[in-house]
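Hey all, quick one. A colleague (J.T.) asked me to put the iron/sulfur cluster job into the tracker so the inputs and the structure tokens live in one place instead of scattered across chat threads. No bug as far as I know, just bookkeeping. Sequence used:
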Amino acid sequence: MKVIVAETAGFCNGVKSALEVTLEAIQKRRNGDAICTFGPLIHNRHVLDMLERRGVSSESSIEGCSGKKVVIRAHGIPPEQRRALHQAGAVIVNATCKRVAKVQAMIKRYANKGYHTVIVGDEDHAEVVGLMGYAKGRSVVINLPEHVEGLPGDWRDVLLVAQTTQNEEIFREIEKMFLARYPAGIVKNTICGSTQERQAEVRQLCRSVDAMVIVGGYQSGNTVRLAEIARECGIPVYHVETENDLSPQEMAGYSRVGVSAGASTPNWMIRNVVRFLESIQPEYFTGQPTWNKVIDLLAYSNVFVAVGAAILACAVAALTGLPSSFSTSAMAAFYVFGMHTLNRYLDHHALQLNDPARAAFYQKWQVPFVAVSIAAVLAALWIAQNVSLSAFWAMLILVLLGILYGAPLIRATWQQGLSTLKIKDIPASKTLLIPVAWACVTTVLPHFSHFWQFPGTIVFAFWIVFLLVLIRTALLDFLDVQGDYLVGRETIVVFLGEAKTNRFIKATLALLGVSLVIGPAFGLGASFALWMLPSIGINLWCLTMCRKNLLKGNVHIEALIESIPIGVGVLGFLWLLVHR
Ligand code: SF4
């Protein structure tokens, strides 16, 4: 099935920033601090469940917020509720969306001049309740053009605004009737740009697909409106919260399906629906199964990473001119495979959010996978002790670090006495430790005996592999950022944010490029380094793909990213064939 995903689907900036503010409050929480949101942070029960598990409750009354750190959600609240929260001893963390705050300020300004405010929106919606609070008691809420006729005819100064997620077309109709009734009235189209773009894209998409799937909470007003807009286009529309709400038999009747989502739908939920749809073969399809399943299987089973680590040893041999052997390649592959797989089990919360299909795969094959991973780690240790005693001890340290990565350790802090610390809680630790481990097993461990003879060459090779794998890991972290945020996984994207990580990856690529040119010039590596330069362009392309395709199937982009170290390794192999 062909699935077309709307580029505008998913979190809007206001929701993204409200979540970030809440997660920052969780990170800064001191022992005993109670955190809550005033009303549900977003209309998505899966995200709310995750927040609940991290100790953030959703309170609906002022009394319930008493003495707590209270996050004001993106919709904002009326000023009297804010005062009441202060009086109840709550510490307010303001996550009101900047655009909503602008509308509040506008209503307040006109209300001070004596204007009445007409708000196009849903009367019970939290944003509308908040906006009404700024109108000095002179506001009316309407949501249909015919409601304009019911407005008092004797009003002189009247302002028309909209809830930021209203239907653009309905607002335009109301605007015409409003100006006919109040020629001196002031109209401010306060529908948020992101809502307008999302709705316009859905209308556009409906013209080129057989059916439309809208993903998002059933209580989410903007998601409901998206579904209504799609229905107006005359095609079948499915408003779903998860892929489980879709019937594969029914969906098999369509060959092209469009997918969009409300402003409070996380990326991973959209991706799950997309992957589910992509796995359905249309009824008339008579061809062979696609390669998708094969790629899924290779990625899920960590075969890509194992092959990447093994063949990267060829690139290291080409770069350093030092001998390579099948056994040291196997050592790197066994270590990387074993640790990646075991860590998938240790990090199952994040996996369940980011990629439930993969989590289910690991769950199903848990016993054989864990057994094979342990066997792989033991094999890596056995090969290391054959290489040298130093290699064995270094491998043992790497294995222990890998295992201790998610385990609670004890630390002493002078204010709080003893508390627990996990290596994985150190900011960006995941993104930085993986490349260190890869660089150790592919460059240092196989060449301990040569180290004092060629220290510069080995350090240079370590540096190149470190940068290459750092870029790979940061790119993969991009794909899982929203789930990682929620479960508190310390990746570089969670630590720096998406925009800074984008710049960080570009800077790292530039550093890799400069190193690849300077290294051979200073005699630190063979001119094979120059053969590696095209990998920079491919990584840049992957970065664009990652940022653009966060909503598409993860596995194919992941396979593409994993194939870069494999490609570099194959080039190393060819170089060795030519030069030896
Ligand atoms: S839809 Fe627009 S106004 Fe509403 S929360 Fe999102 S970014 Fe803010």
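Adding what we noticed when we looked at it: The chain is about 60% helix and 10% strand. The two ends are 49 Å apart (CA to CA).
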